[in-house]
Amino acid sequence: MAYFVLLLGMGFVLGGLAVASNPSPYYGVVGLVLGSVVGCGWLVSLGVPFVALVLFMVYLGGMLVVFVYSVCLAADPFPETWGDWRVLGYGVG
């Protein structure tokens, strides 16, 4: 069980890093969803599934609206991906 919680914690940190290091909102939303799912899984493993469900619905509902709005404003035909060297530099730095 301790390894599972450690794995969820690492997934939560990597999801946050994916949101923070990617300048394109198209791919940053993937990190947001990953971090939210893993964070709610962490809460379920601690024994509070109702709080996890409410947090999942409220957090993703609010943040996805912000991401949709920013995607509409930054309609970039060729967004940067995680494979670009500049994005890799953001993550390492």
Report the major sheet: none
Measured by DSSP, the beta-strand proportion falls in under 5%
Q: Pairing-aware structural class of the strands and helices?
A: mainly alpha
Contiguous helical run count? 4
How many structural domains are formed by the residues? Answer: 1
Mean pLDDT across all amino acids:
79
- Tell me the distance between the termini: 32 Å
Radius of gyration: 15 Å
Low-pLDDT stretches are: none
Helix content: over 70%
Order of helices and strands: HHHH
Secondary structure tally: strands: 0
Overall 3D geometry? flat
Describe this entry's structure for a reader:
81% of the residues lie in helices and 0% in strands. It is built from 4 helices and no strands. The longest helix has 25 residues, at 49-73. One of its GO terms (molecular function) is NADH dehydrogenase (ubiquinone) activity. It catalyses: a ubiquinone + NADH + 5 H(+)(in) = a ubiquinol + NAD(+) + 4 H(+)(out).
Ordered list of secondary-structure elements with their pairings:
Elements: H1 2-21, H2 25-46, H3 49-73, H4 85-92
Notable characteristics:
93 residues; mainly alpha; 81% helix
Write a brief caption for the model.
This protein has helices at residues 2-21, 25-46, 49-73, 85-92.
